[in-house]
Structure formats: structure tokens, C-alpha cells
Design brief:
Blueprint: H1 4-7, H2 18-28, H3 33-40, H4 44-51, H5 59-69, H6 73-93, H7 98-101, H8 108-117, H9 126-137, H10 151-157, H11 165-178, H12 190-195, H13 197-203, H14 211-221, E1 224-228, E2 239-243, E3 249-253, H15 260-275, E4 283-285, H16 292-305, H17 308-317, H18 325-332, H19 337-346
Parallel strand pairs: 1-3
Antiparallel strand pairs: 2-3, 2-4
Helix pairs in contact: 3-4, 5-6, 15-16, 15-19, 18-19
Length: 361
């Protein structure tokens, strides 16, 4: 990636044309330009224009230099390719508009986190950051990012969710990049995923920092690349499912609200989407998004966590009002007590109270 401290603001003269290297080689060998012209079968004028940076070293000329100087053609071609790339990056840096640099204001949180990841240079200039972000975004101009935002973002905006299209796109790219290294089974196995539901529920009893690794292992066995990722202001996302360019199914979760009951409900909500075949379309799941597909996933998530018939009996009997009643019922459902309390609070059967949170990411 371009490093601002080495490129931005430097003179064009700092980019060395391969002709300068050629001049040094023949000087060391006490060879004249005329002799090199004879040895390569080129004119003296051609040799002079290359040495003075007025002409590039072509593949054909690189081969002639290999014969004449005993230095492989690939060496000269690499010098030329590096020069062309550095020159292009220099010109790009010096032609970035203020409007595109202005996009960086949207991405302060993203830039800080991606710098921690090592994806961006901590001391890069604004122009160099723009070039690096173009590469990470896979786009030639950051200003065009909102035009390729996922359709679901617009659906969320219609519900007055505070979404920044630049941040949302960056968050989605982060999910794709972070899951590239996850080793998964060859194909998605929804039957195995359904069988794994009790095992996934059991993970909630692990220590918090052990949960991400164990969940990743379980989903990997089912052919799903799973990660718990950071969240950003402007991308109010709880869960994300997408088929990658490599046809890998990605499932990413955040700890945006940190509440344990919300995390597990959201996770099973996303599992429901996978089991229902909703991954045939790309969508981002916001709290405000509603519809038949979301309602069905909600019902399934609730049923995965707590048996609906047994829950009704538990509520009708008033057992939740008894000392230890919630804990006993939670144990029967193989979930933490906060899951049951969260359900009871949501439906105003018990008063709202402090709920346990996760602090890891």
C-alpha cells in the first residue's frame, strides 16, 4: 500500500526512471552509449532517450540488454513496472479532489480500527489514505461508494435508522476481509447446522472471551465463515449474512448493544435466515427492519432458545414470580437465566432491570 510518509508531497524527481540505473551500469563498466547501441542493435539516440528518462524500457529492449549486459530481461522489466506504478500513484495522489478526501471524515472510526488491524498506515497522509481505502473498498473513487451500498441499507433508511452509506459499506467490506482466513467445510450443510443448535446454545455458558472461537469452530463445520466483528457509528448492524465473491457464506455478528440476551437472540435469528434459505439474497439485518421474512426468523430464533409450549405453561403458571423460578426454567431450556429474563422484560411481565453484557469483541 502507498505510504504517505514516502510518497505524498514529494517531488516528482524522487521517482527514479530505470534509465538512471542503466546509466550507472554502463558507467561502472566504462561502456559508452555508442558501444551499448552497437551491442543492442539500437541507435545512440534511443539509448540516450532511455537514459534521460524520455523513453521507457520495452520488453524487446530489455531482452537486448540481457544479451548486451548479462543482466536478465526480467530485472529491467521489473524496474520499468515499478517506475510506472510509482509514477501512477504519484499522479493519483496529486489529483485526488478535496471532495474525495472529505469522505475520510465519515470514516474516522473505521480508519482507527483498520489501522489497528494493520490494513492502513498510522502516519499516512489524507491522500495516501484515500488510495489505500480505494483498494480496500474495491472502487476507483470513494465518492461513488453510496451507489453500490446494499439495497437493505436503503430499506433501513426509510425507517429512520441512522445509516452512513460510507461507514456501512466499510463495515461490510471488513466482514468480508476478516472472514477470508476462516477455514471452513467445503459447502454449507444446513442439516448439520440444525443439528448443532443445542451445541450452539451450550456455548453461552462458556467464559465470554472463549465464545467467539467456539462459535467459529461450530459454524466452520457447517461450511459457514463466522466472525464477531467491531461495530461502528453509522452502521447500526447486529448481524450480517452474505455470499462472498468466492461463494463462501459469511455470518458476522457485532456486540453493538452488548446485552447477552440480544446477542444470542440475534445469532439464532441469523441462523434461522440461513435455514430458511434467505441467503439467496443479500441483506443487512437492522432492528428496525420488519416484514414476513424477519418475523419468521424472529419466531424461529425465539423457539430455538426457549420451547414455545413450555414457555406458555411457565408464564401461565406464574412460576416466573416465584423465587428461583426463572433460574429453574432457564436450566430446563439449556439457556442462561438472562435469556428468560430478557423475554419476560420484553413482554412487560417483569420490570426492566440491569442485564448482563459482553465486553469482548
Amino acid at each position: 500500500m502507498v505510504k504517505g510518509k514516502n510518497t505524498a508531497g514529494l517531488s516528482r524527481d524522487y521517482i527514479i526512471h530505470p534509465g538512471e540505473t542503466l546509466a550507472e551500469v554502463i558507467e561502472d563498466r566504462e561502456m559508452t552509449q555508442r558501444e551499448l547501441a552497437i551491442r543492442t542493435g539500437m541507435t545512440e539516440k534511443h539509448i540516450s532517450t532511455v537514459i534521460h528518462g524520455q523513453k521507457n524500457i520495452s520488453a524487446a529492449f530489455a531482452k537486448k540488454l540481457e544479451y548486451a549486459l548479462g543482466i536478465e530481461a526480467s530485472f529491467w522489466m521489473n524496474l520499468q513496472a515499478n517506475y510506472d506504478r510509482e509514477l501512477l500513484e504519484f499522479e493519483e495522489l496529486n489529483n485526488i479532489t478535496e471532495e474525495e478526501i472529505g469522505v475520510l471524515k465519515h470514516l474516522k472510526e473505521v480508519i482507527a480500527k483498520w489501522t489497528d488491524f494493520g490494513w492502513l498506515e498510522c502516519d499516512a497522509s489524507p491522500a495516501a489514505l484515500v488510495l489505500d481505502l480505494r483498494k480496500l473498498f474495491g472502487i476507483s473513487n470513494l465518492l461513488d461508494t453510496p451507489q453500490i451500498t446494499y439495497a437493505a441499507a436503503y430499506r433501513a433508511q426509510s425507517k429512520n435508522v441512522n445509516v452512513d452509506p460510507y461507514v456501512l459499506f466499510a463495515w461490510q467490506r471488513m466482514c468480508e476481509l476478516l472472514t477470508k482466513s476462516v477455514d471452513i467445510a467445503d459447502e454449507v450443510d444446513t442439516e448439520k447446522l440444525r443439528e448443532k443448535i443445542p451445541e450452539i446454545k451450550q456455548v453461552m455458558f462458556l467464559q465470554g472471551d472463549q465464545i467467539p472461537k467456539r462459535l467459529m469452530e461450530i459454524f466452520s463445520e457447517c461450511g459457514i465463515a463466522f466472525k464477531i466483528v467491531p461495530n461502528f457509528t453509522g452502521a447500526p448492524v447486529q448481524g450480517f449474512i452474505k455470499k462472498s465473491e468466492d461463494d463462501v457464506l459469511i455470518l458476522c455478528m457485532t456486540l453493538r448493544q452488548k446485552f447477552q440476551d440480544i446477542f444470542w437472540f440475534t445469532l439464532f435469528h441469523e441462523v434461522a435466515h440461513i435455514l430458511n434459505g434467505d441467503t439467496k439474497r443479500v441483506f443487512v439485518d437492522f432492528n428496525s427492519v420488519s416484514g414476513d421474512m424477519e418475523a419468521k426468523a424472529d419466531r424461529m430464533a425465539g423457539d430455538f432458545l426457549i420451547d414455545p409450549k413450555e414457555y406458555r405453561e411457565f408464564v401461565d403458571s406464574g412460576a416466573y414470580k416465584q423465587p428461583g423460578g426463572i433460574e429453574q426454567f432457564a436450566e430446563s431450556q439449556n439457556v442462561k437465566a438472562c435469556i428468560v429474563r430478557g423475554r419476560l422484560m420484553k413482554y412487560e411481565l417483569i420490570p426492566w432491570e440491569n442485564r448482563p453484557k459482553y465486553q469482548w469483541v
